[in-house]
Amino acid sequence: MDALKQGVDALFILLGGIMVLAMHAGFAFLELGTVRKKNQVNALVKILVDFSVSTVVYFAVGYGVAYGTHFFVGAETLAAKNGYELVKFFFLLTFAAAIPAIISGGIAERARFWPQLVATAAIVGFVYPFFEGIAWNRHFGVQDWIARVTGADFHDFAGSVVVHAMGGWLALPAVLLLGARSNRYRKDGAMSAHPPSNIPFLALGAWILTVGWFGFNVMSAQTIDKISGLVAVNSLMAMVGGTLAALACGRNDPGFVHNGPLAGLVAVCAGSDLMHPLGALVVGAIAGTLFVVLFTLTQNRWKIDDVLGVWPLHGICGAWGGVAAGIFGQQALGGLGGVSLSAQLIGTVLGVAWALLGGAVVYGLLKLLVGLRLSPEEEFDGADLSVHRISATPEREANW
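^ thats the sequence. predicted structure below, dont judge the formating
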């Protein structure tokens, strides 16, 4: 029975890793559909190569930073217990690799390719796993301190703060240091729309992410005996809450409608194992509203050119999710309890502060040492031709 349990656990978390791996296709197509046609190839290549760099760095360094272990032992040792620790690494790697995939959407269309890969290595190798270890492996006694002060640990079941807020707030310094795309905001106050290039691909990316998210959340239990149908239904309710709120607030805009479910799912991650489904519906609806309002403010009023809106979507909605777990996880609001609003506030603020600091240091140093931005000529031509030397739909055909 022990061997069967070990095998089932390994299969369970492996399937979760595969589902979250599929979400990276969603990141790719969401970005591809949002950027202009001349940057579509770059969007696809960045997500795949960022994932590959993340895998090597997290295997060699990042997983050890977060969990104090490594894989530099014999294969016989690694294969013990059906290789559960290896597939657990695979599952958690897909979370870590989501950070550069999130950032990619914010800095799209004008960021240089190789400096971003260096940033990916620094973030996945140290910045992200440092906070991951604090939140999920009790490093440095931070969780113990929060529990002494507030009476409960900081609770983040599936990464509203650890993954999503981290990615969104890491992206903000990068977006600010890069500056807006050429001609996005003109000196006379006029603004070029830069509309999405392909709504069907944008929608495809959103759907892939939405489906994969049920692996992201449900499989965060990590063993079969801890699986919870409550997590699945709460994820569903937050998804539809975010969609309907974004539909109403965004006045039927398809870009808002397809990012609405993502906003809801970002927000529900932290407390998906605690909330009542009606509470998850409210959390998702608030997140969908926050995304539409803050995306509009950042783009139109504050003139922050965050192309896919990753700061409002992941940064703000992720932080809201961390706080929401401390509200709607309470028994008074139908939740399971065992969570503290003050603990959630402290943990969320710590995560946001660390991400801002890490983003400012990593991207600030890269800008100083090698530069972050494509030249004006390269940006005008588009990253597809400038970096990859081919467009998404080459019009020139060979003549035989």
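The chain has a mean pLDDT of 95.
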